Each structure stands twice: as structure tokens, then as C-alpha cells.
Amino acid sequence: MSHSEPVYSSDTNDEQWSVVHPLLPLKQEGPGRPIELNMRQVVNGIFYVVRTGCQWENLPSDYPNYNSVYYHYRKWCEGRNLAAHQHGAATPGTPAGRTSA
Question: Model pTM greater than 0.90?
Fold first, then answer.
């Protein structure tokens, strides 16, 4: 599925997605259900909430269920399984190139 034309202004275009996609944990590690969500739509849902400031429950139905989107958001904020975090990128709330003191 090509997303050359974003549905919402916060959605990733193909160029942006090519940068974000390799940073995401798309393979299931350990026990549990395999990831069946469209992770691009999960990321787009997160960007929508961040950009608009809406509550998670008000995430448009064009995105996966808000509970699923929020689950991945929280998992990545906690630094679990996010490739960028493992490679020393800035943690949430810390500008790139700076370390938290």
C-alpha cells in the first residue's frame, strides 16, 4: 500500500517513512502475539495525536485502535525495542546531541 498522499497533514509521506521504518521493531522478540498492525498507521496515529493535541480516545478511525497506538507509543517512550534509542539517539524530551544531566 503506497501512502504517497497523506490523508492527514501529520501522516508520513514515503520519504519520511523510509527514514522512520528501519528504526521500528517490526519483528516479534520473545513470546507473545505477532505484530499484525500496520506500523506505518500506528506511527501516523502517534503523529496525529502529537500534532493535534487530541485525546487518544478521539483518534480518528482511519488509524488503528487508539489502545494499540497508545501501547506502542508508551513502549517506545520507555525505550523498549526502539532502534534509535539503542544507537544513542536523544531520549524523549532531550534534544538531539544533548545528554540529560
Answer: no
Q: Which residues contact 20 (CB under 8 A, 6 or more apart)?
A: 12, 43
Task: Please state, as a whole number, how many other Cβ atoms lie within 10 Å of the Cβ of residue 13.
Answer: 11
- Of 66, 74, 26, 77, the C-alpha closest to 44 is 66
Closest CA to 85 of 74, 95, 76, 94: 76
Q: Which residues of 57-83 are buried (b: 16+ CB within 10 A; e: fewer)?
A: eebeeebbebebbbebbeebeeeebbe
Mean pLDDT by 10-residue block, N- to C-terminus, for the chain (101 residues)?
A: 68 94 79 86 96 96 96 84 47 46 47
